[in-house]
Amino acid sequence: MWIPEMQWAQVAEKAGGPLVYKQIPVPKPGPDEILVKIRYSGVCHTDLHAMKGDWPLPVKMPLVGGHEGAGHVVAKGELVHGFNIGDAAGIKWLNGSCLSCEFCMQTDESQCEQCSLSGYTVDGTFQQYTVGKAAHASKLSPNTPLDAVAPVLCAGITVYKGLKESGVRSGQTVAIVGAGGGLGSLAVQYAKAMGICVVAIDGGDEKRAMCEQLGASAFVDFTKSKDVVADVRDATPGGRGAHAVILLAVSEKPFQQATEYVRSRGSVVAIGLPAGAFLKAPVLSTVIRMISIKGSYVGNRQDGVEAIEFFERGLIKAPFKKASLKDLPHIFELMEQGKIAGRYVLEIPE
């Protein structure tokens, strides 16, 4: 299969940008890696943080961002046996890990000290060709629509993992903060598919309509509510609060409110990563009501398999709008303004 020497990519040459659309060399896969010709790539809020360099984590510069890439394998290393040339594949946030440390051995690969992150510590999917460790890439069925599955590769797997970490069960209620965003729109669907009742929290009529269409039983608009805590509690059975709260917001205030409307013995799961934010909760009520507060990062390899199976069974449909790779700077502007409902998926040029 012919592979060019050069390719088009969106490159952040320094922290804070701007992005430069230019040609760069096509990478070559190592012995345990695959080279994927990317057809579509989702755009995640993490990609904006990566470009801006506003997290206290070392970020590669210059950087090709992106970590929700779907395409086809065009080359592979000699140690790769799980993929063949032409297979549909997904490149995720967790690009690789050592597979031999204590965390990797216990399926907590995201905690591996040697893990590599697509579009953060290694170049990602905002380019025509991307390299990834075969062990961590997702093998997709031949009939999987690559544009629609792209958001599942990060947003879907992440919220599915968060729901599992929360311990919420079928028949119970979860409050999803940021339910109208890219992650939230998927969280609503995974929860519904798992038999969980959803109280969606977000702002704006467009996001209300989307959340209700996706299956949320109630919507609390924080831009119109005079008392978000009371409104969320009122939306739960008996007004006792949600069994779990999934925090996907990109601002700090919702992280401070969550313990006020989660019910006793409930869990608060932080997934969203607003820069510089802190989790705070009153110690007395947290202890007396036995509330659990925890973080949830990306899913492990098996979480990825399960999350994609939900999608391939038709239970998950990521709301998305298509754009071209050249449109990425404008999409970042819309993201900063909070004007994106669902997800943008970039079509990568042939």
TrEMBL record:
GO terms for molecular function: alcohol dehydrogenase (NAD+) activity; zinc ion binding. Belongs to the zinc-containing alcohol dehydrogenase family. It comes from Aspergillus chevalieri. Gene3D superfamilies: Medium-chain alcohol dehydrogenases, catalytic domain (3.90.180.10), NAD(P)-binding Rossmann-like Domain (3.40.50.720). PROSITE patterns: ADH_ZINC. It comes from the Eukaryota. One of its GO terms (cellular component) is cytoplasm. It is an enzyme of class 1 (oxidoreductase). Keywords: Metal-binding, NAD, Oxidoreductase, Zinc. This is alcohol dehydrogenase. InterPro entries: ADH-like_C, ADH-like_N, ADH_Zn_CS, ER, GroES-like_sf, NAD(P)-bd_dom_sf. Its EC number is 1.1.1.1. Residues 16-346 form the Enoyl reductase (ER) domain. Its cofactor is Zn(2+).
